[in-house]
Design goal:
Elements: H1 3-14, H2 37-63, E1 67-71, H3 84-96, E2 103-109, E3 118-125, H4 132-136, H5 140-144, H6 172-175, E4 181-186, E5 189-191, E6 193-194, H7 201-207, H8 238-244, E7 252-259, E8 268-274, E9 285-291, H9 301-327
Antiparallel strand pairs: 1-9, 2-8, 3-7, 3-9, 4-5, 4-8, 6-7
Helix pairs in contact: 2-9
């Protein structure tokens, strides 16, 4: 074999020129629809006649939801101060004083019959659970296994107690656990609120360990919220699990429990509220929400209105395109002259 043959073989091995394929050259078959007037008009009509009924059914389902929303943070606290700033500090002093009686009784009226299950929520406004430092102040590793209770690096400033022992569960999210309580009764008969299975199943089975127990929680000078039973594992303390799934917006609702009995129209509900949670320092709002659900969930008119709006716009555009096509028709060109319909070998 001559030396020239060896050079040619070595150069062919070193060649980085890609091999030809229809994939790399973008010559595979593809769907390239031609937007003819008929196709565009038909698409708009299809979207319109599909979206409008969905929107109407969503609005109908939302109207069927019976919801009671009661704001109680202002009525459950007394302040005789005339000045707004003085009243603000008076409310903070009231909520932080352990000696004051924070029991508040409210009477609510049932506007329509509410069929079980009836969901009880607490709603907080202007509470920024989505703040970056707040969201990061937790340790998912610690919550899963007792072997990781020392992993509190991401939990500052609620990582250790005053004796430098790790807090379980650590972090600001757990520390600020909501601690208002509600007791509901009708005609003196207490209605039980079922608090089982209110958290996500994945949180109960995977995210929080069944052998991780609270330790040193809320033992420092500044108490953030509710205390936890140290004899119950984290996976069974579902109020904590619900709270730990942080909200994306500053106004949010979280599930408190379920009422598993029907409420009749015009029933008078007596709610005894333990007004413990401090939203007064940042001028937040607290609401008690009692609501039924339908196939779309809770009350939500926005979804239905959006469907109706989009469907109506599509029908309007379809009618406008039909009128333009009838009044000023334009001939459609020959699609054979489109670039992807030409023979690639010709250019």
């Amino acid at each position: 074999m001559s030396s020239g043959d060896g050079v040619s073989q070595s150069s062919s091995k070193k060649s980085k020129k890609p091999r030809y394929s229809r994939f790399t050259q973008q010559e595979l078959p593809a769907c390239k629809p031609i937007l003819t007037p008929g196709l565009v008009i038909s698409t708009f009509i299809f979207i319109g006649i599909t979206f409008i009924p969905i929107g109407l059914s969503s609005l109908s389902a939302s109207d069927a939801v019976v919801e009671i929303v009661h704001r109680y943070d202002e009525v459950c606290i007394s302040s005789n101060a005339n000045d707004d700033e003085a009243a603000h500090f008076a409310r903070i002093g009231y909520i932080q004083d352990d000696r004051t009686n924070k029991t508040c009784t409210r009477t609510l009226n049932v506007p329509k019959k509410m069929k079980q299950p009836i969901f009880v929520y607490y709603q907080l406004d202007d509470f920024y659970q989505n703040h970056r430092r707040y969201v990061k102040s937790r340790s998912d590793e610690q919550y899963k296994s007792p072997e990781n209770e020392q992993k509190t690096k991401t939990c500052e400033p609620e990582a250790f107690n005053d004796d430098r022992k790790p807090i379980v569960p650590c972090g600001l999210v757990a520390w600020s656990l909501f601690n208002d309580t509600y007791t509901i009764s009708i005609n003196g008969n207490t209605i039980p609120i079922n608090k089982k299975d209110i958290a996500w199943r994945s949180d109960r089975t995977h995210k929080f360990g069944s052998n991780v127990y609270p330790k040193n929680f809320q033992t420092r000078g500044l108490i953030g919220g509710a205390k936890l039973n140290e004899s119950i594992p984290l996976s069974e303390q579902e109020d904590l699990l619900v709270w730990m799934r942080t909200a994306a917006l500053p106004n949010f609702r979280k599930l408190y429990g379920r009422i598993e009995t029907d409420l009749e129209a015009n029933d008078k509900i007596t709610v005894v509220i333990q007004n413990n949670y401090n939203t007064y320092s940042f001028d937040g709002k607290k609401n008690l929400v009692i609501s039924t659900t339908t196939w779309i969930g809770g009350k939500n008119d926005f979804l239905g209105k959006i469907y109706i709006t989009v469907g109506g716009i599509c029908l309007f555009l379809a009618i406008a395109f039909i009128l333009v096509y009838l009044l000023k028709p334009r001939p459609l060109g020959d699609p054979a002259y489109l670039s992807w319909n030409k023979d690639p070998a010709s250019y």
